[in-house]
Structure formats: C-alpha cells, structure tokens
Specification:
The protein has 160 residues and is mainly alpha-helical. It has a single domain, classed as Orthogonal Bundle (Arc Repressor Mutant, subunit A). 55% of the residues lie in helices and 5% in strands. A hairpin with a 5-residue loop joins strand 1 and strand 2.
C-alpha cells in the first residue's frame, strides 16, 4: 500500500490553510505558490474537501478557503478519505476475491494492517501537524537570529 499524491497533497494543503488562515480565508493560488502544487489540482481537491465539510469557501474580494471545523476535530484519516484515497493494503480491495475468487492466505494480515493504519491516521489531528510546523518555524527563526551580526547596545557603540 502507498499513499498517492492526492492524499499527500490534500494533507499538505490543509496544513497550509490551517497555518495561514488565522487572519482570513486563504486563496488556492497562495497555497499553490507556497506548496508547489498545481492550482487546478488544488481546485479538484478542495471541491472534495468542501463537500465533506472540512473547508468552507468564501466568495468575493478577500475570499478563499477556511477550515470548516476546529483543527483538533479534523484527523488525517478524515482528509484522506474526503479526497477518495483508499486506505487499503489488501490486493483485492477488501472484496476477499484476490485468489481465484477466494480470499488469499494473507488476507487477514493485510486487513489487520489496514486497521492499524486507519487507527493511526484517525489519531493524528490537523492541530498536531500545525504545531509541528510551528515548532519548526520557531527553530528556523532562532537559527536565523543567531546568524545575524550582533547589534550595538548603546548609541555610543553604534557611532563607532
């Protein structure tokens, strides 16, 4: 099983909207620019995210998208399922017909893996992913600040 770009891009875009949407709606053009995701692809994804009640669209000047729910109530599984991304490691898609129209010998193994993956993705919230990104930004700011030359502390030192 592998997660396709559809699921990855949807999660990335939702993190972006959560990070940058604190002051108002976020345009898909801005998300596209920051995340290097095709605008037309984002439009398709956000149509699905909107239909599943994860984002709301705001029309008019200053319009864009905002989250429809609090970040701590949106799980990664919610996002992935909203964009029709299957979470399935079985060869048969769960139909139990993978070996001559019968269940294969490893079906239970892969079905169990599906359950663990889904439980994990359900347990990770958008709020957690946003906090992770904010911590990274704090570290970058700290590093940038340390690399800047020291500023003089007194007016006399500045004149020298």
């Amino acid at each position: 099983m592998r997660l396709t770009t559809k699921g990855r891009f949807a999660v990335t875009a939702m993190i972006d909207v959560a990070l940058y949407g604190t002051k108002g709606p976020v345009t898909l053009a801005a998300v596209s620019e920051r995340q290097k995701i095709s605008l037309s692809y984002l439009e398709q994804l956000f149509g699905k995210l909107r239909r599943h009640g994860l984002v709301e669209s705001v029309r008019g000047p200053g319009g864009g998208y905002r989250l429809a729910r609090a970040t701590d109530t949106i799980s990664v599984a919610d996002i992935i399922l909203a964009v029709d991304e299957p979470i399935d490691a079985t060869q048969c898609g769960g139909a139990e017909n993978c070996h001559d129209d019968r269940r294969c010998m490893t079906h239970e193994l892969w079905a169990g893996l599906n359950a663990h993956i889904f439980t994990f993705l359900r347990s990770v919230t958008l709020a957690e992913l946003v906090r992770q990104q904010q911590k990274k930004a704090d570290v970058v700011v700290l590093q940038d600040h340390r690399t800047q030359p020291a500023t003089p502390r007194t007016p006399e030192a500045a004149a020298v």
